[in-house]
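Hey, resending since the last one bounced:
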Amino acid sequence: MEITWLGHAGFRIELGGEVLLVDPWFTGNPVFPAARRGAAIAGATHILLTHGHGDHAADAPAIARELAIPVVGKYDLVSWMETREKVRGIGFNTGGTVRLGAVSVTMVRAAHSSSVAGPDGAPVYAGTEAGYMIAHGGRTIYVSGDTDVMADMALYQELHRPEIGVLSAGGHFTMDMERAAWAARRFFDFRTVIPCHYRTFPLLEQSAERMRAALPGVRVIEAEVMVPFTL
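The structure tokens again:
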């Protein structure tokens, strides 16, 4: 599989003949090079959203219309986008599994919040936040979405046994590097951990060094924006 960090919490994941854009956020993203947008979305087959906040979901409708591909995610958020943004959607809910071609995606819980901006700018409920287990060919990636540590993570390890963890780790809005590393060590048996939701703004953590130091024996990838790597 090939993974490309799109900055912040966004990823391009190519596996099983599918190209999944997870929380792609380009407009206003200070770490994403605007000139690379075309390369970031080229050939995408699905857009997978963890929740409705603008730094995760704002660009999804435009990409979905441009490429004629579906938005996949929480039923409430996807239904809202189908009605308001006139996109095609695949809405499901926590514990459910959908097949995206040869790739299996199971929605799991996260601990955060989810909303979109209403007509007056006030937040409007967009269903609950989520994470995903993305599986193909006997390998599973856990995308945590924006979250704190949860006891549920122990169950996710037992049920899904992910070998790769894409973990929010910037602090303030989500786990920081120390808490994310603790969760990885306490609940999971990852071979590889990829931190995200950091370096975007000064408010967030700027380095994954604390995570790397706390996870000896685990490959911690401090990815660069738009530089693909293979796992």
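The chain has one domain: 2-222.

Sorry for the duplicate.
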